[in-house]
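Regression check, calcium ion case 763:
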Amino acid sequence: MFQALVILLIVLILMMIICVAAVNKNVVRNRNHVVHLIWTAVITAACYTGFILVRPDYPALAYFAAGLYFLSTDWLVIYLMLFVSAYTRMKPPSLVPRRIIGLLGGVDSVSFVVNTFTHHMFELKTEFSKQLDISYWHVQLKGFHVLHRVFVYSIVLYSLCVLAYSLVKAPSIYKNKFSSILFQTLSVVGLNIFCSAMDAKFDYSVILYGSLAISICYLALYASPRKLLRKIHSTIVQDSVIGLFAYDNEGKCVGVNQVARELFGSQEDIYETAEKYLTSWREEQEDNGENVVCKDSVIEKEGRKIYLYVSFQKFLDEKGRNLGCCFQFENRTEMINRFQEEQYRATHDELTGLLNRDAFEDVAGRILKDADEPYCIVCSNIRDFKLVNELYGTEAGDRLLTAQGEMIRRMGRENSASARIYADKFCTLMPRKNLNEQVFRDNMSALIEQNQVGAFKLHYDIGVYEIQDVKEPVWTMYDKAMLAIDAAQGNYEESVSYYKDEFLKNIMQEKEILSEFDDALKEKQFCMFLQPQIANDGNIVGAEALVRWIHPQKGMVSPGIFIPTLEKAGLIHKLDLYMWDCAAQKLDQWKKQGKTFSISVNISATDFSYLDVCEAFRELLDRYDFDIRKLKLEITESALMKNVKETMKAIDGLHALGYDIEIDDFGNGYSSLGMLKDINADILKIDMIFLQETQNVERSTTILKHIISMSKELGMPVITEGVETREQVDFLMDVGCDMFQGYYFAKPMNLELFEQQYCQATG
Ligand code: C2E
Ligand code: CA
Ligand code: CA
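Current build output:
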């Protein structure tokens, strides 16, 4: 029995040394604490072995060895405490208590050494065991030994508490890490107490100290971390956001995690599903020897699309033998949906859901690139949309646009693209054959009917550009369709208009006119032509001043070409001022020469907006000396109707100065007769349409007759323009017309010619 104990102790010491050697090879967490613990256990066991081997003849040596044994238990528990602190990651006792513990340990150690001589801690007696047939040292503890026990057990108790606390606090997967060490320590302590209480011949707990050290070494450095790692791995796999199918080397499914179950789970066995998945993957994918293959894939679940990023991985051992494989499924649905949503928002108009401007350019460009049939671009525009917003609020405007967007979307077909370009401008690119004007018109009318805004009469314009060159920039095509709308503006019947090349020419021409106008005016390229006005006795009474542009390159340009452009651009007043000046200057000259002709000048509708017309004509009187009744002012009836109040005021002012006002183009407008009662005009100039009428000649002549007789009653002289034939003159004479102007007498001519022909004659 004794020999067995000694052998056991020696074996234990050797095992501990082997342990230290093994631990030293690996860099693992807490290694140093474990090594210190084992070394103190080695020393404790060695001292105890030494002590029990001391023969009864050497009591001093026995006292010394036993003292060493006891004092090394002090350090054994101190290192145990330090290990526990490190292992549980609990803060070790702070510096002061640590020093106190060290000091107490030191005092206790010294006390045990001194005990060799003083025997105040314990006494040794040799006893003989008949049973074992040996003499052994019986340890009799003395009073001071209690202090050693209190010290040792306090430290052990503290360590046990720390372990117990960590055990309670730790999440379940970490509990095992603490429980095994806690229970082993507890049992060693229990056995030690038991040995002491039983007053056994030998302290068997020494063996347990050693075993505990080895066990701690194994548990703390190897078993627990591995177990924990396995648990963590399996938790990661199970709770991962990535789905997983794992297979063995024969393709049998050996693992499916929760995410994969949710992705592929159905009535069928999930393992079977996984195996089928592997089979179909292998059929689809050719094996090019790579260990990892990734691809995007889409599956359907409950009618929803799920976007997966699938990674397939083969596992091989170091000799290249197949160990198994796995699929990882990253669910990218949310990311892709978000991306698609963002992309949608970036390319679509928020209000109508149609494409936006930029996206339209892209999509239209792509469609036209592959176009193998004629295409067209259709644009629409709500006339006076701004007014809808202003009168009924932007909400009403938005409702209208949404409805239009909805209608356009409904009409959309394959190979077409529709967009809201901005505000109320919509645009669709479509194959020419799909454009059904009638359907478009019907839809538009229905839209207007359903979305009537207050009393406002909505009107749509539709412009179509039939694409001739698909390589043209999309915006040029769009502009051309819009140009068709511009060209049709004002035409209330035709709601679909087609682009014609001349529209573009007109625009270019307008641009040219506007860019050249100022210089042309300065350089006096504009000339006053005169067209004679003849009285019914055959004598010339005067002339109408008509402008001509003598262009250095183009030659003579007639006013029909540039006057509408200048009016649109708000520039006509500059030209009119110039013409009025020319006329007044000529009258001044003629007065000096004793000639009595009058000159009629034209006043444009927009002149009243840009000029103080009255003041302009007053200034002429300052500048030139002429008879005011000889400068006659022609204002068209449509100009009079445009801004009634303002023009009336100006006319009153002109009258007050002494000028005669002629109503030009009478009968060409809408409210000729009504206007006559309000406007204080002096002369009526009847429009040439009555003479040009070829279909209803009779009706025209009747109207003419009545206009003339009515104006007679009003006391207004009448002049008819556009007289081209002798018959017309005769008829007009019959019905009492006072004056005539027209090609029958003369065309407009330059001043030189006019003076040559008429001034000599009348003198
Ligand atoms: P308007 O004031 O009605 O001028 C009469 C137009 O009829 C002139 O055309 C004249 O040449 C033309 N005409 C005269 N007799 C006959 C005829 O027997 N048969 C036909 N078919 N036509 C005849 P024009 O000179 O081309 O002027 C066109 C328009 O341009 C004028 O119409 C007038 O509204 C405007 N306009 C001309 N000069 C000026 C100007 O200095 N200032 C402003 N604001 N407008 C002007
Ligand atoms: Ca005129
Ligand atoms: Ca006229």
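Comparison notes: Residues 664-665, 685, 721 surround calcium ion (ligand 3) (CB under 6 Å). The radius of gyration is 57 Å. No diff flagged against the previous build.
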